[in-house]
Amino acid sequence: MKVIETKQYQELSQLASNYISDKIKKKPNLTLGLATGGTPKKTYELLIEDHKNNGTSYNSVTTFNLDEYIGLDPENANSYHHYMNQTFFNHIDINRKNIFIPNGLALKMEQECREYEEKIKFQGGIDLQLLGIGANGHIGFNEPGTPFLSTTHVIELAPSTREANARFFDSIHDVPTHAITMGIASIIASKEILLLVSGEDKNAALKRLLTEEEPTEDFPASILKKHPHVTIIADKKALKGIGVMH
Ligand SMILES: N[C@@H]1[C@@H](O)[C@H](O)[C@@H](COP(=O)(O)O)O[C@@H]1O
């Protein structure tokens, strides 16, 4: 895993945006895995700026999002469909038919999960997966204990995840209890992974990721150690007290 340290969140976002936009320039029909949450917000903002100022085109790009809450309508302000439209898709020239986000309202969830995996495979796999990390080490919504061999599935959210994400909702009672998420095996099948880590809240998780030895299902992000092409961009606060080789 290659670690790039930045001074703060702004610089982290700028590097991440440059990284992604360079990939698209090199491969205009890139298949991009996307993440939600607070961390990548600024990256999306800068990618939009880059699209407007430099003409980076998403016309041939295909995207797959990591996850979605179960039971939230795409119009719901807290759904990841809504987040992605508002934060990114509405502002770039992506072809709507090339956008894939798990359907949290599917009547047959098992079928939805299976078909999501098939769509990724049909597309030839994900070239670059953008990732964040939960304070408990979750990636996507794969909570501690999720099997490394998991593919897209429905998961019960950990109480700490619901608490952390309650900041986006009116009350913690409104945070869905379940989500549909790409599995750990689906994430790790991506050809390349870009993990963004910002702020002191993530310091302990990042420390565990960078220092502990063997991957363990108790700490989902630890699987990244087994992936041959992972780049971590982290700011000083996230890296506080962690010795990183430069
Ligand atoms: N499901 C998302 C993850 O995809 C995200 O990476 C993580 C961190 O979120 P944040 O960037 O807001 O800290 O938790 C959320 O629950």
TrEMBL record:
<feature type="domain" description="Glucosamine/galactosamine-6-phosphate isomerase">
    <location>
        <begin position="10"/>
        <end position="227"/>
    </location>
</feature>
<protein>
    <recommendedName>
        <fullName>Glucosamine-6-phosphate deaminase</fullName>
        <ecNumber>3.5.99.6</ecNumber>
    </recommendedName>
</protein>
<feature type="active site" description="Proton acceptor; for enolization step">
    <location>
        <position position="67"/>
    </location>
</feature>
<dbReference type="GO" id="GO:0042802">
    <property type="term" value="F:identical protein binding"/>
</dbReference>
<feature type="active site" description="For ring-opening step">
    <location>
        <position position="143"/>
    </location>
</feature>
<dbReference type="InterPro" id="IPR018321">
    <property type="entry name" value="Glucosamine6P_isomerase_CS"/>
</dbReference>
<dbReference type="GO" id="GO:0005975">
    <property type="term" value="P:carbohydrate metabolic process"/>
</dbReference>
<dbReference type="GO" id="GO:0006043">
    <property type="term" value="P:glucosamine catabolic process"/>
</dbReference>
<dbReference type="InterPro" id="IPR037171">
    <property type="entry name" value="NagB/RpiA_transferase-like"/>
</dbReference>
<keyword id="KW-0378">Hydrolase</keyword>
<comment type="pathway">
    <text>Amino-sugar metabolism; N-acetylneuraminate degradation; D-fructose 6-phosphate from N-acetylneuraminate: step 5/5.</text>
</comment>
<feature type="active site" description="For ring-opening step">
    <location>
        <position position="136"/>
    </location>
</feature>
<dbReference type="Pfam" id="PF01182">
    <property type="entry name" value="Glucosamine_iso"/>
</dbReference>
<feature type="active site" description="Proton acceptor; for ring-opening step">
    <location>
        <position position="138"/>
    </location>
</feature>
<comment type="function">
    <text>Catalyzes the reversible isomerization-deamination of glucosamine 6-phosphate (GlcN6P) to form fructose 6-phosphate (Fru6P) and ammonium ion.</text>
</comment>
<dbReference type="GO" id="GO:0019262">
    <property type="term" value="P:N-acetylneuraminate catabolic process"/>
</dbReference>
<dbReference type="InterPro" id="IPR004547">
    <property type="entry name" value="Glucosamine6P_isomerase"/>
</dbReference>
<comment type="similarity">
    <text>Belongs to the glucosamine/galactosamine-6-phosphate isomerase family. NagB subfamily.</text>
</comment>
<dbReference type="GO" id="GO:0005737">
    <property type="term" value="C:cytoplasm"/>
</dbReference>
<dbReference type="GO" id="GO:0006046">
    <property type="term" value="P:N-acetylglucosamine catabolic process"/>
</dbReference>
<keyword id="KW-0119">Carbohydrate metabolism</keyword>
<dbReference type="InterPro" id="IPR006148">
    <property type="entry name" value="Glc/Gal-6P_isomerase"/>
</dbReference>
<dbReference type="GO" id="GO:0004342">
    <property type="term" value="F:glucosamine-6-phosphate deaminase activity"/>
</dbReference>
